[in-house]
Specification:
This protein is mainly alpha-helical. It has 3 domains: about 120 residues, HUPs (Rossmann fold), CATH 3.40.50.620; about 140 residues, Alpha Horseshoe (Serine Threonine Protein Phosphatase 5, Tetratricopeptide repeat); about 170 residues, DNA Cyclobutane Dipyrimidine Photolyase, subunit A, domain 3. It is about 50% helix and about 5% strand. It is built from 24 helices and 5 strands. Strands 3-2-1-4-5 form a 5-stranded parallel beta sheet, with helices on both faces. Helix 10 packs parallel to helix 13. The structure holds ligand DLZ and iron/sulfur cluster. The site of iron/sulfur cluster (SF4) has 14 residues, from helix 16, helix 20 and helix 21. InterPro entries: Crypto/Photolyase_FAD-like_sf, PhrB-like, Rossmann-like_a/b/a_fold, UV-DNA_repair_photolyase.
Amino acid sequence: MPRLVVILGDQLSPALASLEAIATDDVILMAEVMAEASYTKHHSHKLVLIFSAMRHFADTLQQLGHQVLYLKFAEYPSVLSMTDAVAYALTKHPELSSILLTECGEYRLEQEIARWQEQFNLPLEQLSDDRFLCSRQQFANWAKDRQQFRMEYFYREMRRYSRLLMNDKNQPEGGKWNYDKANRKACPPDLAQIPPLQFEPDAMTRDVMVLVEQHFTDNMGDATTFRLAVTGKQARQAFLHFVEQQLAQFGDYQDAMLLDQPFLFHSICSMYLNIGLLDVRWMCLKVEQAYKDGKVPLNAAEGFIRQLIGWREFVRGLYWLLMPEYKTRNTLAAQRPLPAFYWTAKTQMRCMQQAIQSTIDYAYSHHIHRLMVTGNFALLTALNPDEVTDWYLAVYADAFEWVELPNTLGMALFADDAVLASKPYAASGKYIQRMSNYCQHCPYDVKKIYGEGACPFNALYWGFLDRNSEQLGGNARLQLAYQQWHKKPEQEQQAIRQHADLILNSLEKL
Ligand code: DLZ
Ligand code: SF4
């Protein structure tokens, strides 16, 4: 019996479970729809990436002999959502007698899909997404008897399971599981930078760029500057370029930031991986091989593999374990609205300006920008988690809720009742000064805590600890910070409080 096989915009993998299961008379449905393009105000590069990669992928499927029904954006007036697209496809193909898809990546859409069976009165089969090493069920089993979920323990199991960077005795290569401490060097400003591979848009991508410019006029970014990969072949090229040119230094400088160097030694491949153009096992094997060949040091290979099979799989597991309640958490009762400069980069704070400008230019900024600059600022100023998580979901080309929500709500905002992080990643200007050269190019003085021209991160940091002392004062990992705060003379504490309040009441002016 022929089936309707629905493939979503982040399922562009030839080895997708539903494609592996496909039969010759099945019909594949892919659709560019308003509901998916507007549930958040996606960056224009994210829209171009997804639509163009979808069109290229559909082309390949057709060339392989599959029957593909591809609905282009705005060409089908009755099709505004994935549900509408399915309804349209079933009218066009009344012979189809069931619906098949690989489980989707977001709770919101999963709820919509769950209604199809009743709505269309057809059996609906959903396959586990085996592009992840750990299935939702496996993660739930791992989590079942644990009071606390710590990435490190999960990661060790994933290393054993995948056998990546393990020696013959099933022990971690080099004797240690984690070389995180060797991933925190500041980067010398004159270190040679090799930019990530960019791709000249072909005719198909250019069509999409025009479409996005016409229909999404208010979204962040300039669609005409789009240069990302849109096929699996290009994405693999971009990744191999990273392995050959950047990976060796990725380990040391993973947390570093430099003025006007938005990419440093990062792979800029998360957006390809998250829509299925790259395969996580293939990437990890390439990195492991580079280490075995003596081309990259262990801290680089381990640091990269940890992000992929540790952190990435861990946050996905937690997302599915804890949704939908997870999204409603707001541990520190943060309520302040997001300042306008998150959309414009118009702020004098150099670190924020740099992190936001690269977001505007590339729908990308690296993890320290996200965690320790824009995220840290949002934490310290008690910005509303709904607004902050929606911003991250919108502006990054790699952002899908399963990965974005735990990273933002849990890791950056410490709003998830300490499920993801055991302490808030709060930091003063000192951290940013140590990890970047931004402060040398900033009108604020990173050495000043309060008074005219003081770096806002300083008073905000102490103000944050002071304001939340009831909830955070007992946290073992913050004892040193609280001791430092309590050692300050009362008069100084008062001046810091006042300065922090002044900033909090005029965030838009920073
Ligand atoms: C993100 C996105 C966008 C912008 N547009 C589409 C689309 O038009 N059609 C589609 O099938 N998928 C799109 N996606 C990806 C989906 O939103 C994604 O599958 C869900 O968010 C689940 O991860
Ligand atoms: Fe950021 Fe403060 Fe440094 Fe300016 S001085 S770049 S605001 S940390």
